[in-house]
Amino acid sequence: MRSVPNAKDKVLATYRAGSGNGGRNGTNECASMQGWLPTGNYRVLNHTKRHNGGRSGINGYAIQVQDKVCKNHRTKRTELFVHSEMNVNGTQGARQPGRDNPYRWDGVRDYYSLGCIKLTPAHIKNLFAKAAHYGWPTRLKVAN
């Protein structure tokens, strides 16, 4: 969305997104590395098209947001990103018949995450293009 002074904010784009791992705690925003990203406002810390999270981390297009204490006031959620499944350079990883490649978008199960927000590769690239055109936001609002 783009803020418009003295008017209703303008919707620039909408995307399907996923958060949580789909398991027993998949919607629990206080379940670290499992649940939804906690509801609330976040500061956008940085963004890059070449995030390198290593062999078991997130790679490629990524937007990092601030850590958040969830609604139970005890659990601090850390290492929070909006990202997709891709290689460091933004390309798709190779198909791995019979198993999931964490660096390749293979379908709806790839919306699952360890608590971040995940978009398809096409959607996150579109989001980056819109942010570059309109200006990068300084905050993100998450509503479940």
Automatic annotation (TrEMBL):
InterPro entries: LD_TPept_cat_dom, Transpep_catalytic_dom. It comes from the Bacteria. Keywords: Cell shape, Cell wall biogenesis/degradation, Peptidoglycan synthesis, Transferase. The keyword Cell wall biogenesis/degradation applies. The active site is at H83, C116. PROSITE patterns: LD_TPASE. Residues 1-143 form the L,D-TPase catalytic domain. Pathway: Cell wall biogenesis; peptidoglycan biosynthesis. The keyword Transferase applies. This is L,D-TPase catalytic domain-containing protein. It comes from Streptomyces endophytica.
